[in-house]
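stage 2 :: seqdesign
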């Protein structure tokens, strides 16, 4: 479909917002289907999360043989991942390689953000504007804006007075930051802080970690890629990928699925099984028993084991006690680390309890409980306005001028996480109401990309102009997402899944927690003629 100089009232078939893993795959898919596409990216290159989060220690915690594209057999055969869990520079160079290899950059305008997207009901077009002053009309608008892309600005009193330098992990400079001989403070002990702290500790003269809430973390046990394992997967990569799509989280987890519940075994065996998961590392821990992440008693047993581990690793009893989480496992996204707890045994590392809040930032450091901690550099790893943050920052208006952020004021509402009623021809990749961040992201991004691409091709073949989620499909879907979430323990404390980390944000758990039934539902919807969508 080439619409240059078209008479249909639009300039382009599709606008894609964002050139992370989702946006890149979407551009490639649309070009393969011969749609015209323009992608706009705020950053100066591709990579999304892996472009922005280039802090020391940044690393993926899904195995890279799986956290990678499958649309090209040649690509997945040619690329070699050097470690089980690739570090940020390797993932970014992979994204850059993909962009070059499939000529994706030709369709991307970098250093440019979409500021507004308004739906024109008369022409069934999206009128899109950029911060560079460009306007264009597209039939479809596809949001590939990411779930963790809207960083929370540090709004600590006195930050402007700080005489040293400060950085945010999610907006890390492209040049290396040298911590040698410096007194460094890290604020935040989520997945990001926990990755950065051990690496910064090795360089800094003194590191003070400001912890508001302690976190559960399990060792990654990262290692160089096992070449035999790689060869085995590459011998039938397509089948490996297909199998993974049928698994929870869309990921092969190298553990035997345990049919047992925590208290089906005696204390000795329970401990041995937890120990085996710990030694294996990574995400396996939460699958030690069938009920480890789902029942309160199973969860408590796992949580206690992990708290004991902290006590075993950290030499100073008071520091160990402070590092033990009080919440249940999984209600904050569990972290995966390399030497995190052992870092507190270093002479140059101090843990500062800021559970009562950071009082202020002064010219020379951070003040907590009346004590000033002198610093040359502060690193903020304080998180994101997740899932809806970036979408709500764009002025998106659907039918009758309805603003998406107004429709979503009490929490996002969408059908399958793909479309929201009242916003025809607008898609969200890994949007709210889809399994998104509770899965291995790259394969599940590709599932959405393929679904959307096939949908647009179907509309073209059937000479249809629009697709829109129906209200009577969206409402029960939102209820289903909530009901599934209520059957887990993940909404039990303040976390970014629910918006609990952002003051004033509506608390909703907008993630569909069962990937397998989700994928089946998406297929069923298509088989039933796009059931739940109005095609016009
Ligand atoms: P996060 O999990 O939201 O953690 C933010 C940290 O900052 C928390 O410890 C939080 O404390 C603290 N914080 C926020 N505001 C504060 C304040 N005013 N004073 C003191 N402390 C404050 O954010 P994140 O670590 O960037 O991780 C977000 C998500 O990104 C992860 O859960 C994960 O999904 C993803 N991620 C993935 C990887 C990977 O794949 N390897 C790596 C990094 C991140 P509270 O807990 O008290 O709010």
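stage 2 :: out
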């Amino acid at each position: 479909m080439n619409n240059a100089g078209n008479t249909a009232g639009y300039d382009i078939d599709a606008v894609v917002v964002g050139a992370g893993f989702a946006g890149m795959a979407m551009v490639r898919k649309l070009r393969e289907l011969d749609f015209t596409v323009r992608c706009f990216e705020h950053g100066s290159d591709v990579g999304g999360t892996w472009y922005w989060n280039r802090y020391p220690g940044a690393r993926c915690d899904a195995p890279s043989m799986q956290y990678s594209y499958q649309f090209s057999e040649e690509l997945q055969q040619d690329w070699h991942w050097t470690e089980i869990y690739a570090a940020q520079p390797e993932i970014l160079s992979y994204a850059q390689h993909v962009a070059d290899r499939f000529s994706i950059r030709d369709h991307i305008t970098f250093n440019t953000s979409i500021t507004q997207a308004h739906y024109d009901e008369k022409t069934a077009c999206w009128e899109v504007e950029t911060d560079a002053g460009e306007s264009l009309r597209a039939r479809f608008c596809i949001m590939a804006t990411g779930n963790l892309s809207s960083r929370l600005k540090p709004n600590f009193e006195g930050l402007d007075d700080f005489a040293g330098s400060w950085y945010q992990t999610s907006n890390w400079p492209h040049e290396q930051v040298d911590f040698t001989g410096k007194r460094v403070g890290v604020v935040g002990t989520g997945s990001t802080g926990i990755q950065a702290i051990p690496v910064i500790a090795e360089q800094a003269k003194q590191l003070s970690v400001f912890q508001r809430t302690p976190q559960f973390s399990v060792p990654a046990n990262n290692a160089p890629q096992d070449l035999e394992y790689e060869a085995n997967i590459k011998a039938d990569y397509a089948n490996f990928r297909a199998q993974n799509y049928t698994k929870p989280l869309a990921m092969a987890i190298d553990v035997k699925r345990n049919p047992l519940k925590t208290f089906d075994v005696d204390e000795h065996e329970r401990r041995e099984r937890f120990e085996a998961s710990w030694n294996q590392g990574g995400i396996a821990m939460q699958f030690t028993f069938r009920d480890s992440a789902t029942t309160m008693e199973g969860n408590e047993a796992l949580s206690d084991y992990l708290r004991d581990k902290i006590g075993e690793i950290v030499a100073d009893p008071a520091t160990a006690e402070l590092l033990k989480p009080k919440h249940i496992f999984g209600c904050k996204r569990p972290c995966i680390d390399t030497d995190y707890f052992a870092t507190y045994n270093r002479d140059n590392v101090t843990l500062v309890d800021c559970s009562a809040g950071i009082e202020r930032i002064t010219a020379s450091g951070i003040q907590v409980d009346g004590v000033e901690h002198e610093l040359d550099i502060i690193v903020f790893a304080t998180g994101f306005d997740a899932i809806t943050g970036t979408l709500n920052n764009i002025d998106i208006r659907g039918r009758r001028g309805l603003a998406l952020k107004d429709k979503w004021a009490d929490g996002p509402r969408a059908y399958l996480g793909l479309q929201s009623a009242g916003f025809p021809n607008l898609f969200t990749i890994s949007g709210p109401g889809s399994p998104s961040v509770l899965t291995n992201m790259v394969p599940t991004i590709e599932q959405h990309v393929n679904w959307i691409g096939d949908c647009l091709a179907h509309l073209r073949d059937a000479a249809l102009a629009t697709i829109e989620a129906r209200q009577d499909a969206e409402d029960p879907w939102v209820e289903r997402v909530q009901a599934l979430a209520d059957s887990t323990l993940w909404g039990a404390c303040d976390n970014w899944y629910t918006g609990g980390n952002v003051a004033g944000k509506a608390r909703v758990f907008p993630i569909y927690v069962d990937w397998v039934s989700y994928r089946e539902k998406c297929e069923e919807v298509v088989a039933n003629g796009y059931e739940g969508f109005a095609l016009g």
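stage 3 :: structure notes
- The longest strand covers residues 135-143.
- The pocket of NAP is lined by residues 59-61, 148, 187-193, 195, 210, 212-213, 333, 354, 358, 381-384, 437, 496, 501 (CB under 6 Å).
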